[in-house]
Structure formats: structure tokens, C-alpha cells
Design goal:
Number of helices: 3
Strand content: under 5%
Distance between the termini: 45 Å
Largest sheet: none
Shape: elongated
Oligomer: single chain
Radius of gyration: 22 Å
Length: about 80
Amino acid sequence: MAKAKVSVTVDGSLLRRCDRVARGATRSKVFEEALEGWLRNVRQRSLEDEVERYYSSLSKAERAEDSKWAGLAPRVLGETWT
């Protein structure tokens, strides 16, 4: 993958703390890993928000049906995994 050179400005004490725990990793590697982690967190929060919106949109009848299915799943899995 092609690399792009960027310039960032960060708090000096934050940078020093990162340098102390980098364990030999370059600042570029630290920033790449931090950005990857941030993107994972954003995607996770987005997914959680979508799931919450879905379940919030269910009618009372749909919630009752979902609850029945959820109660059935452990028993069915137990039967198929034994």
C-alpha cells in the first residue's frame, strides 16, 4: 500500500508518553496503529448505534417474538454442540 506523508501537531507531553511506550516502533507506526484503532472504534460504535436503532424500532409484538427466539437459541445450540 502506498504511504502518504502528513504533518500533525500533537501535545508535547502526549508525544513524549507515546515515545516512552513505543518499544522501538517508529512514530509513523504508532500513528498508523492509533488511526487503525480509532477507525475500528468508530465502526464499532456505528454498528452498536445501528443495532440500538433497530431494536428501538421494534413493536411490542416484535420484541416479544425476538425474546422467544433469544430464549430458544441456547437450547438449540446446546443440542447441536453436544
